[in-house]
Each structure stands twice: as C-alpha cells, then as structure tokens.
Amino acid sequence: MKAKKSISLNNYGIDIWGDGNFFIEDGVVKINNGEKPSLIDIVKKVRSDGGNKGPLLIRFPHLTLKQIDTLYTTFNNSIKSYNYDGTFNAVFPLKVNQFPNFVLPMVEGSKKYNYGLEAGSKAELILAMSYNNIDAPITVNGFKDKEMIILGFIAVKMGYNITITLEGINELDKIIEVYHEFNGEFCPNIGLRVRLHSGGSGVWAKSGGIDSKFGLSSTEILEAYEDLSKNNMLPYLSMIHFHIGSAMTSIMPLKKALKESGHIYAELVTMGASNLKNINIGGGLGIEYSQFHKEKHYSLEEFSNDVVFTLKEITKQKGVKEPNIFTESGRFIAAPSTVLVTPVLELFSSEYELENLKLKDSNEDPTRIDPPLIKELYDLYKSINVKTAREYMHDALEHLESLLTLFSLGYIDLQDRSNGEILTHLIIKKTISLLSVEDYTELVKIEAKIQEKYLLNFSIFQSLPDFWGIDQEFPVMPLTHLDIPATRSATLWDITCDSDGEMPFNPKKPLYLHDVDLKKEEYFLGFFLVGAYQDVLGMKHNLFASPSEVNVVFENGKAVLKDFLPSQNIHDILEDLDYHMFNLQQKLFSKLRDDDLLFTLKKFLKDNGYLKIGMSSQK
Ligand SMILES: *Cc1c(COP(=O)(O)O)cnc(C)c1O
Fold this sequence. Notes:
TIM Barrel, ten-stranded mixed β-sheet, 39% helix, 21 helices, 619 residues, eight-stranded parallel barrel, alpha/beta, binds pyridoxal-5'-phosphate
C-alpha cells in the first residue's frame, strides 16, 4: 500500500508561524514552556465549572516578555557589533492592545528593560501615566489639543520622561502657549514627526509617505526649529520620529525612511539642536502569520543591523553624534501572546446520518416507491470501493442536482429529497475515507465539492475583525486529533446572523479538519497570533461581547490560571448601548406573572450571549 500522503501532516504550518512557542505531541498542541501543558488541558480547566461554553482568549504573558527580550537583545547585539554609541530604547504602542490582562503583566515583567508606553489619545495617555514604569520613556503621538498637551506637562510633574511628538506645526503653537502658562519652568521633551518622501510597505503604507496624514514637511521642520529657538525651547527638542506603517513585509522602505530622517536629524543637530539625541523609528515590525510559506522577508537581526548601520553611516558622514534608537513596535510584541479558542458546535453534514435514511417500503404501501434516482444512489452507496470512489461520488453529486430540480418542479416529495441528500453525503464521506487511505492527492483534486462546514461558537466581527476587514490571515488548527489525518476541507462559520461571518474554504490555502462526532467528543479550534489589534477593534455585531479571557502564568514550571475575566453579560452589554436598565427591566419583568420564569429570565440577563452547547451541558 502507498504511504499515506496527507496535507494535514504539514502540522498546520506550526514550524512557519509558531516560533517555537507551541509544538505538537501525542496528538495535541502543547505550550513549549515549563511543564509543557497542552492547550486542551487549559481549556478544560477553564470550562470545568460548566459555565464557560463560549470562546476563550488565552493570554501567555511569558510570550510577550519573550518578544520584548528578543527585541532588546537583538538590537543591543547590533549596537555592540557595530560599535555604535547610542542606546536602544522601546515603548509599547497602547493602541495595539490596551486590555489590562495584557498590559499589566507586560509592564510588570519588562521593568528591567525600562520598557515604556506610547499613547495616541488622551485615554491612552492617562493609562500610560497610571501604569508606566517611572524611569521608562513615554511617547505621545496622534493629533493633540491643548488638554492633551497639558496632560503631557502633568506627566512631567509626576516625574515621567515623556516626549510629545508633533504631528503638525500648529501643535507647536499649543505647546508654546502651555509652556508660557506654566511660566516656562518645565516642558515635556518634544519630538518632530517627519513627513517622508519615501512611503511605507504593507497594508498600512499610508501611515508614512509624502501624502501621509501625519508629520511635518521640511519647510515646517525649519519653521518649528525657528519657533522653538525664539521661545528658548530648543533644549526640549529631543527626538525625530517616523512611522512608515504596520506589518512591513519588506525592509527596503525602512532603509529609505531611515536615510531621510537620519539626515534631518543630523542637520538639526548641526544647526544647533543640542539636545536632539533620539531617533524614533516607529513600529511596523512584521509577524509571520502564514501557515503555508514565509511571507515576511526579513529577520529581526537584518532589521536591527540595517537600522544601526544606516544611522552610523549618516552620522559619520555629517560628523554628528550617533543618536539613541527608539522603537514603537506593537504587533511584533503583542501578536504571539494570545490564542483564541473556539468550540466547534456543529458539523453541517452531521444531520445526514444513515439512521435518518427512510427509504420507502413498497411492501407496506405499494403507492410509496423510491424514485429511480434514489435507488441508483443507494446502489452506488452500497457498492462503492477504492477504485470506483471518485467516479461514484461525481455521479452522486449529479444525481442530487437532478433530484433537487425534480423537487422544485414538484415531481418528488420531501422524503425523497431528504433521502437523496443523506445518500449523497454518505457517499462523499465514504469516498473521503477510501481515498484518504489510498491516494490523498486524488482527494485534494475534488475537495472544493466536498467541503464540510464547521459552526464555531464565536463572532468573527468581535474576535477576528482584521479577517473581516482586511482579509488578514491567522493561523488556525485543531487543539486535538493531531495524530489522525484531517480529511475534511473546511469552511468555518461563526454564530452571527451575518453571511460575512464566514471563513470560506480557500483551495490556494486549504484548511483540513477532522470528521468528528460531536455527540461523542469535543473539538476545539485555536486561532493563533491574535494578541495585536483584534481585541479592541472587535465590534459587538449582534451584541456578542469580548470573549472570556484568562492569563496562563508559569510558576516554577507549573501553569497557573490567573486573572479570569468572564465575557460581558447581556445586562452590561445593553447598558453599554445606553439603555436605561432600570426602565428596560421594568418593561421586561412587568409582563411576566410567573415567579419561576421570572427567576430564569433574570438569570439569563446576568449571563453572556454565547451559545451553551457542548457535551457537558447535555448531562
Ligand atoms: C500603530 C503605531 C505603531 C505600532 O505599529 P505596529 O505595526 O503595531 O508595530 C507605532 N507607532 C505609531 C506612531 C503608530 O501609529
């Protein structure tokens, strides 16, 4: 017999996107840390109280700290090997993930690096001023009004090392105004965001470039220099900043941006900006999301070497001091930290079982006879073997098509139609199991016709908004069954009532899952690398709230569950929409006279909206 050649044996690309954080052993996904627990064990522990049946976000603070450590170590190695004078510094851009379960362990664990925070709005700045490590830098980007600038002054008073970056020249007028209102006694550091001639790369390239929403033109930079100088504020000018966009797939645009901004830095220093010491290269470091082949074409080493080398060259050429390097990479730091686990509620074809087949018995009732096509389908089903599988399956699909037409014309009844659908699905299943043993490649050729639909207990809009919005891929794989070949080409459905809540089967990037009987066993899918941007961009479409979440912390090698946060309940979701809840409940409860039902209704209001389907709930 030929060796089984199964696409599923590529291990869902875990070697491409996994970065050594997860591995497969004994048929399950395990976490490569401490006692190496399996994800399924963690999921079972969280669900053991019977309440949490919905999706679950599992966060791993050790993976966030690993990314921070890698970032600092790699840059510091480049600095050493090029004998570079400046230091390396980094801040976390809060817009990437502001959730406390993510932010608080990160701030706590990164003290030794002096890892700081970046804020892009007043609310984020308040967050940074509350939790930032006191010696670590804070940077402020985004459009600012006078209030936001006053917040920056207050942060200085609190003892923070804060830099406010000007996105436009008129923001400087406000800073000067506030500076004088505080009698010119103190001021945050000032950074200039430069509007680059060179654009970015990746989906968000419009964050950089000459027609970018952000940054000062060369004329405005000179104007800013003059204004600072006139107001004796030049000593506060400390940073040049650029950000060329998120998820860079290539390093070329960064090199161009570095050259441009490196020269701007050098010229301003030469003109007399004596405290200008920092270049902030923004974010944009990519993450490998692909399950099939590498799509990110550079390593962090190349990236850091390029930054250090380019800055060294420019400053040598212009005879100025080598600047400290700042980065604001967010996706790179946050994405690996979080796994979204979704229970599979249903397989679409599960209703098409043999036990539901009700062929007509002409012995009992001579007027009830199966149509010839049904008889033929039944013969195909009985006689199918490895040699005939492919041909019979095509025949079956054709027969079903004809039966559906006959039904629409009124020539066969609902029972016939049901029998036809059941028999066709049984033939498909038999074909898959026959071919997957003999010749998997043959199976792959016909996969588009024989997809299984998996209904998942989650909302794509809430939990993977970038899939919905910009077709961002996230690695997905089952948590169990990984020692069994996956034979079903899969389309994923979420539980929203929206036809966009679907991840269709893509023959170019096929997803194969297992044929499971959910009455007998549970089946969970994990979506990986979801720690960046998804949580806060997620929307409450159909009023599904953010999933329950938990931190997995390793203490002496043991995985401990911490900071469990249940998904928001229905009462609170409605309150968030500004319904007056007292009023709503009065209207709701006053219509019901039955105390038991009233009790049930009140209980439901205190629960989240995800579906409670699953094996233990049937007990
Ligand atoms: C969004 C943003 C970042 C983070 O970008 P990533 O691609 O997540 O690294 C950094 N700096 C600024 C100014 C940003 O707007």
